[in-house]
Amino acid sequence: MNISVVLKRELAGYFATPVAYVFIFIFLVLAGVFTFYVGNFFERQQADLVPFFSFHPWLYLFLIPAISMRLWSEERKSGTLELLMTLPLSRWDIVLGKFLAAWLFAGMALLLTFPIWITVNFLGEPDNGVIFASYLGSWLMAGGFLAIGSCMSALTRSQVVAFVLCGFVTLMFVMAGFPLVLDVVRGWLPLSVVDMVASLSFLTHFNAISRGVLSLNDFLYFVSMILAWLAATSIVLDVKKGG
Amino acid sequence: MIEVSHLSKHYGDFIAVEDLSFKLVPGEILGFLGPNGAGKSTTMKMLTGYLRPTSGEVRIWGNDVWSETLAAQSHIGYLPEGAPAYEEMTPLGFLKFIAKARGLSGEARDQAVSKAAATMSLEGVLHQKIETLSKGFKRRVGMAQAILHDPDVLILDEPTDGLDPNQKHEVRQMIKGLSEEKIVIVSTHILEEVTAVCNRVMVLAGGSIVSDGAPEALLALSRHHGAVTLELPDISDALVSSLDSIEGVSALEREDDRVTLIPGEGITDFFARVMSFVREQDVQVNAAFVEQGRLEDVFRKLTEGETQ
Ligand SMILES: Nc1ncnc2c1ncn2[C@@H]1O[C@H](COP(=O)(O)OP(=O)(O)OP(=O)(O)O)[C@@H](O)[C@H]1O
Ligand SMILES: [Mg+2]
Question: What is the B307 CA–ligand 2 centroid distance (Å)?
Fold first, then answer.
């Protein structure tokens, strides 16, 4: 109940400023560019959205920090955090409410890529179940990115610092599954550690998803990622309360 | 009922608030005075559960602010320093949000919002974005959100800063008009505000309480307490020095056509003495009155040397 109070205000906040529209516009343009030019959507002559989805981790890498950077930094800077934290709302109401608003917003941006889905259905006969699973997986991954961003934003009153921190940490999580990085690490670390590093990566879990396989394992990975980083957000807020 | 015991806040080696203990009962309107950096806002942030104290505890109607935060916070209406608000919202949207967060809904919510808006004369700007409002109106929005749920405890950090004289008056009337069951804590740099609305004054300096009592008691500390001021149309140096020689006058201050005579210690019939001198010497006097005391004096005396 209280979560929805926080959520609604936050979500409305996105659309009260040009931020939302600029973000959605850029997101759609980049998604299109990646899919059709970089991903050779037409040349592949295949009725699926693999080129579209496989670029999402890279797209999120710099677009998600742009959403998440303001989550707490802005409130800390403007003083509204003091207002929010002295209302009779529990910490989870606030942390979850704000996160869910950002996540729903990312979901809206994702849904607005539907013309690409229409295009592929117009051109061929894709497996729409696969596409649906990929959309869901991509949204879950966006949640993971956002939860990390939420924690980074809670650390600082500067949105720029929050952006850079979030970009860096999410890059680590993406790169951890990148073959190049894994090859380097493989040389001097035990295999079990390499596997663990790889298993923490967004890329490892998203690869299957972008091909339409949303396994319980990957689903749980993203959900626990979200919960863990939100818990970290809550802890950071608490520690910062000490001044 | 508010119970504060041994409340301290340190930032590393720096002591912002040191060992505050006091109790407030319903009906008390406490004025928080102190030079910049005295720890007024820091104390308020700890009372409202925003800042964690280094040590000590705060209870609001028996609820510990740190272990029963939500219960304690639901008693409080709080205007933080600088009256922060979500700038992209309209006052109406903002107040509705606060009301919902305070657990009000439906009819009760709308009533609370319109009552608070009316009290702070916000009707004309309800649909304008807060970021486009003037400073005073922003402050009023902050006040409206603090009083919205008719809280038992009202904590206001410099509520009248930036308000026009009419609104200052309105806010003071509003505070004075609160029922006897409420507790109010206001910080301010406007000293006459304290005598106008508060029935208890606490002066902080360097993070500690340097004085705590009724405004009258504070005024009594002033060197001007019991002083007699005369307005003299034909003021002359000779007249001034003859006034200075009245028995019992310990000091004399002259400003334009006004002379203030300050009594020596332990003199009770000072006004009578001065007036009998005036009558005997047939001095022309336009006005004569006994001073209550000047808060600026007391404030300076109490906090001198404490300001960094
Ligand atoms: N996060 C912080 N880190 C270090 N020092 C701090 C911090 N926050 C506040 N202080 C210091 O604590 C002291 C008390 O500050 P506070 O804001 O409570 O003063 P105040 O009495 O409200 O002053 P003013 O009248 O200017 O509003 C100040 O010296 C301030 O610099
Ligand atoms: Mg202050």
Answer: 14
Q: What is the ipTM of this complex?
A: 0.89
Mutation choice for B interface testing from A74, A80, A82, A238 by most B CBs within 10 A:
A82
- B213 and B238 in one domain? no
Chain A residues bordering chain B (beta-carbon distance below 8 Å): 2, 5-6, 9, 12-13, 16-17, 78-80, 82-83, 85-90, 241-243
- The domain limits of chain A are 2-242
For residue B32, how far is its CA from the centre of ligand 2 (angstroms)? Answer: 10
Give the span between the Cα atoms of B93 and A12, in whole angstroms: 10
From the CA of A235, how far away is ligand 2's center (Å)?
27
CA atoms within 13 A on the CB side of B264: 8
Distance CA A49, CA A71 (A): 31
Q: What is the pLDDT along chain B (308 residues), one digit of tens a residue?
A: 999 999 999 999 999 999 999 999 999 999 999 999 999 999 999 999 999 999 999 999 999 999 999 999 999 999 999 999 999 999 999 999 999 999 999 999 999 999 999 999 999 999 999 999 999 899 999 999 999 999 999 999 999 988 899 989 988 988 888 878 899 999 999 988 898 899 999 999 999 999 999 988 888 888 888 899 999 888 888 888 888 888 888 888 988 889 999 998 888 888 988 898 888 888 889 999 998 888 888 888 888 864 44
Q: What predicted TM-score, i.e. pTM, was given to this entire model?
A: 0.89
Which residues, in sequence order, are bridge partners of residue B64? B59
B262 and B135 inside one domain: no
Say which of A16, A78, A86 has its CB closest to residue B89: A16
Which domain, by its residues, includes B202? 2-219
Do B97 and B208 have their domain in common?
Answer: yes
Amino acid at B112: A
Question: Residue B27: which of B213, B172, B197, B184 has the closest Cα?
Answer: B184
Quick check: CB of B39 below 6 Å from ligand 1?
Answer: yes
Residues listed for chain A: 243
Cβ-defined contact of B11 to A2 (cutoff 8 Å): no
B88 touches chain A (CB under 8 A): yes
Phi, psi angle pair for A125, to nearest 5°: -125, 80
Count of structural domains, chain B? 2
